[in-house]
TrEMBL record:
GO terms for molecular function: ATP binding. Keywords: ATP-binding, Cell membrane, Ion transport, Iron, Iron transport, Membrane, Nucleotide-binding, Transport. It is found in: Cell membrane. It is a peripheral membrane protein. This is ABC transporter ATP-binding protein. InterPro entries: AAA+_ATPase, ABC_transporter-like_ATP-bd, ABC_transporter-like_CS, P-loop_NTPase, Siderophore_ABC-ATPase. It comes from Loigolactobacillus jiayinensis. Its main location: membrane. Residues 1-235 form the ABC transporter domain.
Amino acid sequence: MQVKQLTYAYPNQNRGVTQLTFAINPGTMTAIIGPNGSGKSTLFKLLARELQPDSGTIELEQQPITHFSAKEYARKVAVVHQHNQLYDDISVLDLVRFGQLPYHSLLAEPDDAQIKPILDYLELTALQQQSMNQLSGGQQQRVWLAMALAQQPEYLLLDEPTTYLDLHFQASFMELLAKLNRELHLTIVMILHDLNQALHFSQRVIMLADGRIVAGGTPETVLTPPHLQDVFRINTELVTTKQGQFIVQLPTTTTAD
Ligand SMILES: Nc1ncnc2c1ncn2[C@@H]1O[C@H](COP(=O)(O)OP(=O)(O)OP(=O)(O)O)[C@@H](O)[C@H]1O
């Protein structure tokens, strides 16, 4: 996926994103990070075709993404939003079946042979007849991911996928994404707020500020204390442990006794 000079401003505003250029290489995990209001969600909506750019292009397989029909695009790119809303009560199985819509007409019988391994993979088989509103937030998040996988996409876009999960589920959800990337070769693009998740789970980080890319590259080159100071206005230190390196946020001011 190639993003070239992508620019979007909300109506009557000059805010949004400006002149974004970057590539998402197949088979990689990319983290999009930046402070509040830096343009992450706007970029996400442009990649998901929920907004149309004012100028610039997004290309997939050397074609502008506008050339794909909605169904064609859904077979290539699946989106997991941060705030998923359900208007009706629905079972886990029925919701995951919706992921197959890009392959079938509405009247076609669901193909549960394809769904079953996905439910097994995400440890949802025992929950498949349960109603969504009986599940915890972490379980629901796995079901939305299962629905996205039922689209059999090549690209998976995730907007702050771990925001509502407790620390245990945050860690296991990120491990799961890494497994999907490794085993199914899914290309993953995710908005993250947690800098250590970006450090440990991405090969590439795109750092936004004021709607522009201020740094892009490997996590080690982008997530440096000077960059984090400039962009997030936080004081950090990279600490090396037996488990690898971690970004630790330090107090911004020190009080003399
Ligand atoms: N619907 C909208 N109408 C007008 N301006 C908007 C709208 N949505 C976002 N903006 C503005 O566009 C800019 C980028 O916002 P965006 O939501 O993309 O940031 P973000 O990085 O996702 O922020 P956050 O971390 O708070 O979710 C901000 O200045 C914001 O105020």
